[in-house]
# Entry
Amino acid sequence: MTVLDIRDLSVDFATESGALQALRKVSMSVPENRIVGVVGESGCGKSTLINAILGLLADNGEVTSGEILFEGTHDLTTLAGTAMRDLRGQKIATVFQDPMGALNPVLSVGRQMRDIQYRSNLSRREKDARSIEMLRKVRIPDAEQRLVQFPHEFSGGMKQRIAIAMALMMEPSLLIADEPTTALDATLEVTIIELLKELQQQIGCSVLFISHHLGVIAELCDEMIVMYAGEVVESGTTRDVFHNARHPYTRKLLACDPARLTHRARRLPTIPGTLPDLRNRPEGCVFQARCELADATCSRMPPDEEIAPGHLARCWHTEASVMIGAGA
# Structure
């Protein structure tokens, strides 16, 4: 079963200088009981994708085409506000990247965890018992005593674990994790990754994991989506994409991972050039201005070529791309 199926999704934002095409014909899926990672540079469309799924686009944002199918029955692009609110929290939960801002500073943790269960008919005692159980699952010590404490009494890592506990309280079908390890140090990052893997297996939910950290994607995700300038340029199993990347952008992105450096360098590797102006999106391949393989063919929209079963790359030169150095 596919929990989330996005088909040819395009999103525009109205600006004073014209429509900004934030997403163009994005297609991807999140299978049942799988963790799918989305990676790309800042500005690639990751946040817009999340907001489109949750129905939280800004007032000047509009889904211009495509559909977002949830559990095969709901097209999230057509749901009215009330119907969408019924899914949020119950069926689709979110963990955001800032643990400091995820919790209300003036309410106790116990109060906030009870409020998450407002749709439940359980008594206050039963809700507190569930809250304590979830805090234990995310490895919060002395869980019973923690319910009366306030967010400022917890460390950043503990706040993030509490946010995860609250997101998973109702055992949703889909958890969207929006760069949940960005504000944490390396040690806590590893702890959160291990925790997410463990909870995902226990609850049996699917996870859409958004990150710019390739190491986290490699460690956590079963499948990965590579985005550039609002398009999915490559997708497949994490192993296939890491070991047999075929889109020039993917190869360059992997080469910029500091973990791949074999010697000290004064400067970290970067991808030359800048993102295109999405108010005047180039015809054809969106990466052509930064790609040494670009030729006249690239002036036409490239197809999604199947490299192997389930491994796709949106490029005219998938064979030639393996011959170039990703950092060239």
